[in-house]
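Example 3.2
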Amino acid sequence: MNIRVFENDRQAAQAAACMIAAQILSKPAAVIGLATGGTPVPAYQELVRLTNAGVLDWSRVTTFNLDEYLGLPGDHDQSFKYFMMKHLFNKVNIAPESIHIPDGMAADPTEACMSYERAIREQGGIDLQLLGIGRNGHIGFNEPADAFSPITHVVDLTEDTIEANARFFASSADVPRQALSMGVGTIMQARSIVMLVTGTEKARAVRSMICEPVSPSCPASVLQLHANVTILLDSPAATAMNHCR
């Protein structure tokens, strides 16, 4: 792992944006994996700025998002499709057909997951995957479990994840209980991975990911086994690493 610690969240997000921009500049037809949540928003803002400045061209880029809530239509204001359109896709010149997000309203969610896997393979795999980390160490919506999930699949969300996301809904009862998510195996097939983590509430998860043995009880720990991973932290997210042995 290549670990970089920045003074604040804005610097870490700008570093993530720079790495995504570098991938697109070096390969204009890049396949980029993207994540949602509050943490990457400043990175997306920087990518939009670079696009408006004429630095980036998204016309040949293909994207795949990590996950989507099961049961939410794309126009729901808490769906990840809505999030991505609001914060990035509506503001850059990416072709609509090049945007891939799991179908939260699929009649057959299992088949939708298999179709998503096929689409990634048909594009030649993901060049760069952007990740965040959950408080319990999840990546995508891959929750702590007895084994790593190999492919895109239907996930039962844990109470911790539901609680963490409840702030975006009217109440925790409104948070969907399932999601479609790239599997850990799918994520690990990306040629490069960039993880962006900010805030003290993620510090323990960061410590488990970096300092403890690889285990599906902390899904993010599997990144120790990837050949090209960069972890971008702000200083609060890095505090618990001082106790690594």
